[in-house]
Amino acid sequence: MIDKNILETLVLKLGREAVVSEPEDLLVLGYDSTPGLHHTPDVVIYPTSSEQVQIAMQIARDNKLPITPRGSGTGLSGGSIPIKGGMVICLNKMNQILEIDEENLTATCQAGVVTLDLFNAVAAKGLFYPPDPGSQKISTLGGNVMEDAGGLRGLKYGVTRDYVMALKCVLPDGSLLSTGGKSVKDVAGYAFKDLLVGSEGTLAIITEITVKLIPPPQDKRTFLAYFDDIRIAGTAVSKIIAAKIIPSTMEIMDKATINCVEDYVKIGLPRQMAALLLIEVDGHPAMVAEEATEVERILNDVGAAEVHVAKDAAEAASLAAARRTALSALARVSPTTLLEDATVPRSMLAETFTLIERLTQKYQLTVGTFGHAGDGNLHPTVLCDERNTDEMKRAHAFYDELYEQVLAWGGTVSGEHGIGIAKKDYLARQIGPGGVAVMKRIKQSFDPDGILNPGKIFIANGE
Amino acid sequence: MSKQTSKKEKLGNFTAVDAPEYEAVLQCMRCGFCLPTCPTFMLTGRERSSPRGRVALARAVAEGRLEFTAAVKDEAFFCLDCRACTTSCPSGVRAGEVMEICRSQAQQQTPQGHMGKSIRDFILRRMLPDPALLEKSMLPARLYQRLGIQWLVRHSKALKLGPAWMEKAEGMMPKLDAPLRPQLPELTPAHGEKRGKVGFFLGCIMTLMYPEVSRQTVRVLAHQGFDVITPKETKCCGAPHLNEGDRQTARELARFNLELFLAQDVDYIVTDCAGCGASLKEYEELLAADEDHQRLELFRSKVRDVQEFLFDKGLRTEELLPVKTSVTYHEPCHLCHAQNISNQPRALLKMIPGVELREMNEASWCCGSAATWGLKFSEESKQVLDRKLANVAATNVEHLITANPGCHLQLAWGLKQAGMKQDVLHLMELLGRATPEN
Ligand SMILES: Cc1cc2nc3c(=O)[nH]c(=O)nc-3n(C[C@H](O)[C@H](O)[C@H](O)COP(=O)(O)OP(=O)(O)OC[C@H]3O[C@@H](n4cnc5c(N)ncnc54)[C@H](O)[C@@H]3O)c2cc1C
Ligand code: SF4
Ligand code: SF4
């Protein structure tokens, strides 16, 4: 329960519209897409400007209220869950695209703009914003920046980080910080912008973002390759990369995922196949033609059961859309879907599939795996029931063992979903106590009172 | 799929009777894919007015973390039950249906004052179930208004808002012809080579407000080679009852219609009202607890929307006369989202000689009618409708085609208010124009 005086101050300074404190509103802002995690905040703020964010931050600072920033709550590591209660600042009404600068090839928008809306707005001007997380219809740019979201096109075009040019943000003491700009080159002092990207809302609240745009590829070709053994699909990915071809997309789905997606989209995916790869090559028409031939040859060489070429742009788009529903579609099977974000060097893909298969048997679980195969970024997803404690224990053991091996192979515990609450323990294993200590010191210098998104990324004393 | 049972254990803070299934709310993985498709979330930007939020509220009630509060009830009634969320949810969650069931909880858990209850009971329990009474004692216009009054009485603070809704209800009324039910023959014989025998389920709003539409539907069906049986006793499908949370009466009506149509010797049960069609197709779940499973399945297997039916059977086009015109198609929620019928009407339109179909943007975006929702939330309804009208305007066609009387009323009213040139036609009316008189 929030103190009545604080509430009145908030309403007075921000206006009634911006402050929400009915229990039902609070209850539904205590989750994101991470299963099993929930904590109800005490008050929720819907700012519409940087100034309002500043005011809310100052009031929170004066009253030592924890603050948790939130975009659309599609995060998969619990980043926007207010585990210490306090104030949630919901950015999704800050959804204005402020400028599309065709001379400098940049776009500037408020942090709450939905990713796909930005994509469409720049596409209407013949420009291209490549980052496209599976959640692009819903997720906000602020959330993307804070998680350094990757996407289906990450393989060739990189992730959100590669497109952020400037940020405007509010620090935990309520002051404003602008960092970066429209200059392509900029080495003036510490690169705050790069530090902020991927900081999961623990250092500052982003209110404005300037991103880089590029010209769209002139041509593209989309394939679906089916496999009767998922390891062959892994080999295909490694072979294509080794042939020095970088497709824009190389996405994988295993049999369980194919079936759940097909249950939803009904576009005739082959249910009996062990795996499929969705591959897209794009660029100059002559290059596309050449690369497409080569990709097709490699797929046939490694032993793909079938290779299908999308007949037009509409079919290609529907295939990509189908892939984007993979995670949510898996949720059909069981009440709880526990998803992980294991990422390995691409040459280890086939081994990783073997490992997942072995662990699935060992812990007697139902697992669906899909992901950005071209980036080595896989999402093995345990389909379980949170009410079954034994099953949950086995699921955790599964991930423990999986990550141990992934780290031994030089992989990472998070390719794109962040550490949040869910993976604090694993982060420490990956970067060691020294790494965690430096991160904590950085956090300390941005947020000396520890009020911004507390309880995330690091294991605090006593946890 | 949330099956309804009348006898079961109490679930958290829901009453035992007509509570949502716990599994149905657990299924939501909170991905948010439904958010941009939900008109009420787009209106308010408030998570609790989104499918994800509504399911979370229902789950909290089911888990005893939240009472069935006034806000939960408000959300249940603020939901349009347009089911756009069902279409967009990869996990198979049916937030609209959960809210529909919560409306019944609202009726059980927050009893209303005497006045409100008696008016509501009169409309839902006496008038709607009795077609003759409907036709005789009530001008159909009054029906709409009474439903509105009943709501106002329940939410007396809304009286302060002034009678805008009443004006709207009045403004929406089409020019009324005599009800169709008494006029339609029990059997309309097939024309030409016979292809089968169908039972026609005539909806209340159709017979009262759009008799011409259903007259054309029957004529088209006959012309397409089907004997059409129209049982005079047909009662309301129960949709308004489900909509208002009176599941008890809905079940009684469902049982009656089920008996009536199973007793006819027909291959299919066809309707031209998307709302009725959706409701008939859901009898299976509504009656699951107390009816014979096989009979429910048999009934369900026969029900078809008329567009769906004609597309499946293959439209006979040899005798169709050209209708030179341009049209755009508005998808009724109860057709595309509740029944998953989306391509069939478009395919039929393309088969009518002379008709040019121009797609509008967001054809499946709700028109904001949603039974009495458009009267209860007239301001919000206007905003939802305006988005639709802008998309219609951009097509610059002559006719706006739809296939549901609720949409028909709302769109016709909106076009008139906006001074737009289009008129609204049910797809069967357009097909009727292309179908020669015998
Ligand atoms: C179906 C599905 C598919 C997905 N696919 C992908 C994928 O392909 N690639 C990928 O990388 N991720 C994916 N995700 C994860 C998720 O969508 C991303 O992490 C996304 O960037 C989160 O955006 P959001 O607006 O929902 O942020 P939220 O979940 O609300 O917040 C994420 C984090 O950012 C912080 N935050 C949000 N806005 C701000 C701000 N303005 N200032 C400061 N901090 C802020 C929050 O505190 C939190 O720590 C997927 C999720 C789902 C449900
Ligand atoms: S209802 Fe479906 S689409 Fe909406 S959040 Fe839940 S799982 Fe996702
Ligand atoms: S039925 Fe319609 S209004 Fe109701 S939650 Fe679903 S999308 Fe929103």
Topology record:
The complex is a heterodimer of chains A (463) and B (438).
Chain A: H1 4-14, E1 19-20, H2 23-27, E2 43-45, H3 50-62, E3 67-70, E4 87-90, E5 97-101, E6 106-110, H4 115-123, H5 141-147, H6 154-157, E7 164-170, E8 176-180, H7 192-196, E9 205-212, E10 219-227, H8 230-242, E11 249-254, H9 255-265, E12 275-283, H10 285-302, E13 306-309, H11 313-324, H12 326-330, E14 336-339, H13 349-362, E15 366-372, E16 377-384, H14 389-408, H15 424-446
Parallel strand pairs in A: 2-4, 3-4
Antiparallel strand pairs in A: 1-2, 5-6, 6-9, 7-8, 7-9, 10-12, 10-13, 11-12, 11-15, 14-16, 15-16
Helix pairs in contact in A: 1-3, 8-10, 8-13, 13-14
Chain B: H1 22-26, H2 39-44, H3 51-62, H4 70-78, H5 84-88, H6 95-109, H7 114-127, H8 131-137, H9 140-154, H10 164-172, E1 187-188, E2 196-201, H11 204-209, H12 211-223, E3 226-229, H13 239-244, H14 247-262, E4 268-271, H15 274-281, H16 283-286, H17 293-302, E5 303-305, H18 306-313, E6 325-329, H19 333-336, H20 343-351, E7 355-357, H21 373-376, H22 378-395, E8 399-402, H23 405-417, E9 423-426, H24 427-434
Parallel strand pairs in B: 2-3, 2-4, 4-5, 6-7, 6-8, 8-9
Antiparallel strand pairs in B: 1-3
Helix pairs in contact in B: 3-6, 4-6, 7-9, 9-10, 12-24, 18-20, 22-23
The complex binds flavin-adenine dinucleotide and iron/sulfur cluster (SF4) (2 copies).
Residues 37-40, 51, 54, 79-85, 95-96, 99 of chain B line the site of one iron/sulfur cluster.
List keywords for this structure.
heterodimer; A: 463 residues; alpha+beta; seven-stranded antiparallel sheet; five-stranded antiparallel sheet; 16 strands; B: 438 residues; alpha/beta; five-stranded mixed sheet; four-stranded parallel sheet; 8% strand; globular; binds flavin-adenine dinucleotide; binds iron/sulfur cluster
